[in-house]
Amino acid sequence: MSIVSRCVLGSVLTLSLLPVAEASMRCGTALVYEGERSVEVLRKCGEPDQREVTPPSSPQGGGVTVEQWMYGPRNGVYRYLRFLDGKLVEIRGERG
Length: 96
Fold this sequence. Notes:
The chain is α+β, with helices and mostly antiparallel strands.
């Protein structure tokens, strides 16, 4: 194995050991992270300024409930949260 191959392999192995970054959002003194349940987000942040709920598309229970929440603007930023079956899967911020 060449020295360049070893360096590349070492870099790839090192990067694979780094933790995956999770998005977070501050609510007062609390932090909300992707993966949290909607009840925890409500407890930490209160009711969102806007909420849209899309029930499962299959009446037989084959789909998931999707919720889109919006907080803001706070300090000029809107925060958009997306939940799948009550689990926070995305936190996105946009300047207003």
